[in-house]
Amino acid sequence: MDIKGTTIVVTGGHGFIGAPLARRLASLGAHVHAVSRSTHPDDGEVRSHAVDLADEGAVMDLFAALRPDFVLHLASDVIGVRTPDVVASTLRNNLVSTVNLLLAAQRHGCRRVVLTGSLEEPEATGEPAIPSSPYAAAKFAASAYGRMFNALFGLSVVILRVFMVYGPGQKDLRKLIPYVVTSLSQGKTPSFTSGARLVDWIYVDDVVDAFVCAVNRRGIDGQTIDIGSGQLISVKNIVEMLFQAMGAATPPGFGEIAERPMEQVRQADVAAAKRLLAWEPRVSLASGLNRTIAAYAGSDVAVGRD
Questions:
Q1: Which residues, at least 6 apart from 179, have a Cβ–Cβ distance to it below 8 Å?
Q2: From the centroid of its chain, how far is CA 279?
Q3: Do 288 and 169 contact (CB within 8 A), yes or no?
């Protein structure tokens, strides 16, 4: 895939996935612009822009100035809370921002927009699709707008439905794996739900690879493609692996936190991703956890074998 000389906008370009993705694209010769709500210095060859994507005028001005060939939309307000007080913020930051970006991309002739979907979205099937949270509702609607722009307005839109990403650089320490590792490294005792939920875990470097593959891959317009490992591992199993690897003195306390209602259990269709993107995950769970522990805890402990 040759993207040398193209102009690429990466929203959320200073985030957990966006930052390494922007650097990877720049290393391939693209002119990369990282967009976020806060101000950041340029990162090597990656130019930084502070733009509120929920401001339609600001988004239009950005696209008029940059004229991007491709847009990779990773900016998102990721929150799993199931309460009414987050409805307005998730609507603004996940749906309105996406619609503004699609409008700007269509107006300024972008060659493709890659949206970041979520495993939390309900399936768009014949059954009533009931989102499990305000975040899931906003992401589900954003994906619907993406499909509409592709089918109705002729804008190439591809949706990568990303599963549970983990790895070094995850700034939100409330997420399970960094929460466990940082708690144990600080001598604290983390608390958990029952841990029964089955999750498809995917390492951050594999996700970056998938986005790179999706930039100008032919024949995938309008597609929603799962980006996961294709394996379901329970939260309980992950926690026990981390406790064992880090030599925790006490066993994990499962059942101390209430379960979230309506959590999705979904296994990624890796075969479809391989067929459509020529992509498949490469980093094993053991290797990914080892790298993550080393990054957060500065430790050489090992989780099983590769």
A1: 173, 190
A2: 16
A3: no
Domain holding 87, by residue range, is: 7-163+202-228+267-282
Q: Is 235 exposed, middle or buried (0-12, 13-18, 19+ CB in 10 A)?
A: buried
pLDDT by residue (tens digit) across 138-169? 999 999 999 999 999 999 999 999 999 999 98
Beta strands in 136-217 (DSSP E): 157-162, 164-166, 198-199, 201-203
DSSP 8-class letter at 169: T
What is the token pair recorded at 107?
């107006």
Residue with tokens 């593959």: 213
pLDDT band at 126 (very low <50, low <70, confident <90, very high): low
Mean pLDDT of 189-196: 88
Domain for residue 41, yes or no?
yes
Segment 251-266 mean pLDDT = 82
- Domain assignment present for residue 254? The answer is no
Does this model's pTM top 0.85? My answer is yes
Whole-number Å distance between alpha carbons of 90 and 246: 36
Q: Which residues fall within 8 angstroms of residue 206, CB to CB, at 6 or more apart?
A: 227, 229, 281, 282, 283
What angle is formed at CA 193 by the lines to CA 190 and CA 197, rounded to 5 degrees? 125
Cα 137–Cα 207–Cα 97 angle in degrees, nearest 5: 35
248 lies in some domain: no
Total number of domains constituting the chain:
1
CATH code of the domain covering residue 134: 3.40.50.720
Q: Name beta bridge partners: 7.
A: 31
169 φ, ψ to 5°? 90, 0
In DSSP terms, 113 is beta-bridged to: 71, 157
